[in-house]
Amino acid sequence: MKLIECPRDAMQGLHDFIPTDLKAQYINQLLKVGFDTLDFGSFVSPKAIPQLRDTTAVLAQLDLSVTKTKLLAIVANLRGVEDAVNHSEISFLGFPFSISETFQQRNTNSSIAQSLGTVEEMLNLCDKNNKTAVVYLSMGFGNPHGDEWNTEIVAHWADELVKRGVKILSLADTTGVSTPEKIETLLPFLINNFQHTEVGIHLHSTPNTRLEKIDAAYNAGCKRFDSALKGFGGCPMASDDLTGNMATEDLIGYLESKGEPLNLNMEYWNEAMILSSKVFH
What we know:
Blueprint: E1 2-5, H1 7-11, H2 20-31, E2 37-43, H3 55-60, E3 70-75, H4 78-84, E4 90-98, H5 101-108, H6 112-128, E5 132-138, H7 151-163, E6 168-173, H8 180-193, E7 198-203, H9 210-219, E8 224-227, H10 248-257, H11 266-279
Parallel strand pairs: 1-2, 1-8, 2-3, 3-4, 4-5, 5-6, 6-7, 7-8
């Protein structure tokens, strides 16, 4: 079971700038907990996501000497890829590949076709720099823009990405429109049809639908979950009303109830919960 904690996703939509030192303190605390991966920052235009304009400065303050957790950074174009691969501390580069044309333009200022080219170049640079690409099938459960969506469209783009060498796909519910029924249909399809690709899920949800979505994903065979402490965050490019992330504490509680060995240090986790009140207020 792989748990990916997403402080970057939690922070990116906040209006008030979080001081760099506080960001680093919070992420360092999360690094002690024992997650598989930490989605810690992004190499994107500071005009697009001003909250994360200090990602390089935050990275310089992170203590990776006593953690098994790997770092993931989000990129949105080739320039971001080229910046990110220069940092040896980063293991994973994440790219939001939307199957909604409208959202791809809104999120990365490029078309789906152009973004496919960016993915190809990212895969090449990742191979040369000992990184691994994680591609998010953004708007994977539908979109609010009226763009066509169905299982066949999801399958088509997943196939195109895997054919190009993507080894990790994360099915992303960007605006919280997923349902247990959609999850139970899409996840097994992807897992069964792309058996040499790691398939995960990045769910956004309101508090009252979190557990049913986690349950559906778990029962569908998912072994890779993205979440954020207390469900903070959401994608500021997706809609005006942010739908929060899956809450990590809900995910931990659910997986523990299923007897899954998570190997997390809950003392450090509780300290991160307390520290979060200084970051998100």
